[in-house]
Design brief:
homotetramer, globular, argininosuccinate synthase activity (chains A, B, C, D), cytoplasm (chains A, B, C, D), arginine biosynthesis (chains A, B, C, D), Rossmann-like_a/b/a_fold (chains A, B, C, D), Arginosuc_synth_CS (chains A, B, C, D)
Chain lengths: ~400, ~400, ~400, ~400
């Protein structure tokens, strides 16, 4: 059944039933040594059970890798992306997309360390994640063999999976026997849900699907007001308290959750060609996004801001499609980062029943600063008579066009 | 004082104190016949008092033009712009910008009709509106003389303006003697406020500035659920009830107002080169914007949607800067309109305390339709094995890059 | 061997050895009825031999379709593309890319007419053409079965192909027994060559590869001067003589050929992910491209021209990648076509030893026309004092930035 | 007459009649100290006569600044721009535009050094150069006073200028008494000519206008073949001989001149709003442009190359419009420079009678390298079966669209 010969494979392993089945399937199908990699990206699950589970399934201790990536994730992936104000299709904050490259990078690093020739992931054959994982694998290790069990195996139904698990002594939690009413992906930036009960885009998302946010209607009747401090485009403190990347995002998540912030019901266009409906919860990210726009509004020049806005859709699309490790994403990042030198200051926001409302911003580098408009010795930089000339020359080509029309009697 | 000789001028006349002063100033400075044009764009003021006022100031009845432009405004300006999902600097729905071209167009039409050689407006010399008015004037009548009193006259303070008014027997309402704490522009799409009390961007907008929206906190505790029906990209009905353009937008405004929707506190970059802080209230527009994105999400192909998203910032900038009547705006409009043929269907939204939440969408032309994914005789269009090839070829160039790096020992 | 069951297949058939082998292979592998389609796109070969060959291989007369598409090709594909000044990767005039959608469209039309359920083409598995053919097939007939023999069969070498031909009584011309030193694609717009002797990008293209152009060095010592007349963006006459689309392009090809014009040695990036080196000869197209830019230079407004320039790379990429029948290409075409209304007039060019030199242009709709710059009664539209204000306001944001730097001591 | 009070002004001084008149006019009008700055940017004139002339006109020796900027010009302005493959309106290599920021920068540096409060230039009020100079001045010294004599003085004709010169004892060369038949700007990158005899865009540029290039027809009958070596996107050697930036460009100019390369007759759109017709001679730049594209073609990844192509028009427009010292140009430069790390290697070109023909390219970092396409143990990276999946998923959305059409009976 195995198309390629493989000696050692590094599997992105959550410790859950599905990746445990994959683990076994890799052993039985490829007859290869399996190395597991379990990462904490803030999905909200403990990691040690994954170690136990892996050991139980026969993985040697030296082949079990567990790592807390929360700070790296937020600092090197989430924050750079938020510098760009990235939103896919105008609304989606890319919470799933941005986590994949980091997991893939770590798998490849481990593969290099343990001398593995293959990597494997648990993403299905219809989604975007398989693309994101595999583009990253190939970009970092061009000769790697990629195993995507969901595209390869013959297990066609939940029953077959469960049967395979039973045959292979994989413990099955009671609630995992049946098919889940929807599937979830989570990390420190967001939780996404899709499938089954969410498939009909005309039907409202049921309440029980939400896990990261309280409903706007059950949020407190009193607004919460917070101030986020930015340095060079990245948030560094909340209400004056300095926080590391992961802690800061966790704090924003907490604030967002309580206030019912960050729910998004979206029909989006997958890279693989079809539309899908998903529900996203990005409580902290939703606050951060608006706050970053706010601090940029007083510290970024118009030329810089508009250039960023024009390129944002392309940048977001690259991340969504899995091209984090591509020259064009890195080029755009260089452009974006260049703009953030003075994006420093405070933004004050009101959080209230699902809404984030920007109510104030200050910066030592503000370009709005009244003093700036006045130059040297009281000479005012803006003379309203200049506007006449400005308009006249901007209008010149339009007048020429109009004159042509007139001449033609149009 | 008058730089140019003028025979007859068409003034954009609101009937208020400022444009009444301009009216008199035009008469005394240019010694020319003044024609007034007063338009109803849904700003919420009656027009007949403007007629009385103009007559009182000596304007001949045949020189007084009053027109209800609400439907034309919404149908030919607001809706085409919303087809583009236009937002300036990521957030502003362009409520002021979009009204100027229509007023200018009507002034020019009247100028042609009455044989006027000049037009005048009441916009100041520091803002965007002067540009928007004048670019439109020139684009429609290249030989027109433009008079911008605020850039020309010597009236340097509120006191001088009041004195001029008194000298010229212009009635002054009591509350107009002092300087207003902020200035307002309003039409059916929005109200904007700026200046004075709003100038410090670190200070929250005071409650009394809002005129079009209730505060989220005073909105009802129960959400309002509505369904908007679209045809070819434009909204045509609310909760199944067909409405004309102006009535539909008015209805959305009402729904938005009550639910505290559409407030925006923004520092933006003006075309004339400085930053300014404004507060916008766009209750109906805020709902419409999300609804339009929602109906597009199931009816628009990815290629079309992404192209629109990439071009949106440029389109919004053109409107903001006053280039409505420019070839490039018209070219972009042709592109956008081409995409809207099947943007038809229903979007259901929940309005709640300042938030608009999309909860469902359906369309007879949905591209999401499950049946579409299956083609002829049970042959399935999507084979997950195809994904392997798709990824492999997308990865090929990245692998080649990685191979180069490896070869170089990088 | 055949993966899918097929009743009747429409094959893009040139009459040459390779597509004859495909014809037989389809019959033997799929056991299906084969319908041949042979098109004249100006490749410079007669079509009747293809009919004879098809009959010889057992195709029923009613299953042989032969069509002269030259005018349709130039009018509906080449000219629209030239309105956009399209060049892939800055240099390539897309001669091969633009022909594929038309051939595919005709195959699908025939398939609908004869009730075929499949189509087949002779493009290899490593190139762009397979993508272009198949994207067009699917876009026009979503349920069609696509057969790409070069990706499916076991014929792995020239020897095997020849053996297959011999087994199947396919006549083999003497010079076709060995492998060709390079492969050629040709139509009225261009000839392209690639493979074998061209594979090393450091080695100059050998002289014998060129078929459509004389070498610059053997071109006449006296320049040829011609005038091309455009109407709404399309060429309609040469030296005052009206010509239909195909005849006009043929005439330009003749003029270009003699003068050594239109050779391009290029390393390009294929859609399927690798680089390839090709040699293109586009004699008439090279002249036409510069001429079109020339007529646009006096008839197109700056806003329109710059918007076109910014979107051109995307438009060219879409055509190169095979997305002619996509909403985004059609949207861009709507934008482009909107701009061409007044792109009418004459362009004079000097052709000389490989070079095209624009030496003059006139238009009844010229925006350059001196008279246009002067408006009404001697009032000059351009007052150089306006420039001061224009510059001042354009500089305002840069001054503000500089002031910030100064304040910070940077 | 002087609107502003000025103590000391730094004048961009060529030593010619016009800037000598300006020098005197500044002294008499502003009663200020004049500091002259004369730069060698490769315009082909000696600088010492300018010193003599300035002394003659009463400038103190310590107020005379003369500098050879050729290497700085080419290294820090021309080469970075060529990394972008910048062409304004598809054709113009921006030879004049790119020189202005450097001159302005030096004037400001001198102003800071000598404590001057003003700068002056000799550009007219209708052109782009005034904008380029002044935007750079303001961007570097926001409080500077800018004097643009051509916009300010009353000298309305050649006669008045000559009369002013005579009154002020400015020596007048015989051939400068009448009006020149065209005006010229020159530097190491190019010479541009415009005005008078060039104003009618339908009339061919007369032979005597050309100064930097021989005519293609008088070029040698034998081609010249050269090889240019690039390192990180910049040319560093010709035919294996290392050359500094200015020497290298000078050498290319020489090669281009003899072979009739680099003439461009163009109608372009000025930033100030009107069209103008100019003639450009850019012999070395024309060669360099194609050579750079050539080396990029084998060393740059597709994603990087296409992103550069899409952004090029905007980048070129920024330089043309005078925004060299703007955040958006610097951001784009960061993006471009990021891409050039491996743009290293040799390009071979044939120069022949006005044409530049790329005939070969090699690079130690080539992405075309055959070996790269094969990975590990003979496993080929490209499997043509992958193409099927690649096409299928790319087609999926088009098939869905087609299915919708079919369902609707369209």
């Amino acid at each position: 059944m195995a198309e390629k010969r493989v000696n050692k494979v590094v599997l992105a392993y959550s410790g859950g039933l599905d990746t445990s089945i994959i683990l076994k399937w890799l052993q039985t199908t490829y007859g290869c040594e399996v190395v597991t990699f379990t990462a904490d990206l803030g999905q909200g699950e403990e990691l040690e059970p994954a170690r136990k589970k892996a050991e139980l399934l026969g993985i040697k201790p030296e082949n079990i890798f567990i790592e807390d990536l929360r700070d790296e994730f937020v600092r090197d992936y989430v924050f750079p992306m938020f510098r760009a104000n990235a939103q896919y299709e105008g609304l989606y904050l890319l919470g799933t997309s941005i986590a994949r490259p980091l997991i893939a990078k770590k798998q490849i690093e481990i593969a290099e360390k343990v001398g593995a020739d293959a990597v494997a992931h648990g993403a299905t054959g219809k989604g975007n994640d398989q693309v994101r994982f595999e583009l990253a694998y190939y970009a970092l290790k061009p000769d790697v063999t990629v195993i995507a069990p969901w595209r390869e195996w013959d297990l066609r139904s939940r029953e077959q999976l469960i049967a395979f698990a039973e045959q292979n002594q994989i413990p099955i939690a009671k609630d995992k026997r049946g098919e889940a009413p929807f599937s979830v992906d989570a990390n420190l930036l967001h939780a996404s849900s899709e499938g089954k009960v969410l498939e009909d885009p005309s039907v409202e998302v049921p309440d029980y699907v939400y896990s990261r946010t309280d409903g706007p209607e059950s949020a407190p009747d009193t607004p919460t007001v917070i101030t986020i401090t930015f340095e060079k485009g990245d948030p560094v403190a909340i209400d004056g308290k300095k926080l590391g990347p992961a802690d800061l995002l966790a704090k924003l998540n907490e604030l967002g959750k309580v206030n019912g912030i960050g729910r998004l019901d979206l029909v989006e266009n997958r890279f693989v060609g079809m539309k899908s409906r998903g529900m996203y919860e990005t409580p902290g990210g939703t606050i951060l996004h608006l706050a970053h726009r706010g601090i940029e509004s007083i510290t970024l020049d118009r030329g810089a801001a508009h250039l960023k806005d024009e390129l944002m859709p392309k940048y977001a699309e690259l991340i969504y499609n899995g091209f984090w490790f591509s020259p064009e994403r890195e080029m755009l990042q260089a452009l974006i980062d260049k703009s953030q030198e003075f994006v420093t200051g405070d933004v004050t926001l009101k959080l209230y029943k699902g809404g984030v409302h920007l109510i104030g911003r200050t910066s030592p580098y503000s370009l709005y600063d009244q003093d700036l408009v006045t130059f040297e010795e009281g000479a005012v930089a803006y003379d309203h008579r200049d506007a006449a000339g400005f308009i006249k020359l901007n209008a010149l080509r339009l007048r020429t066009l109009a004159q042509r029309k007139k001449k033609l009697g149009l």
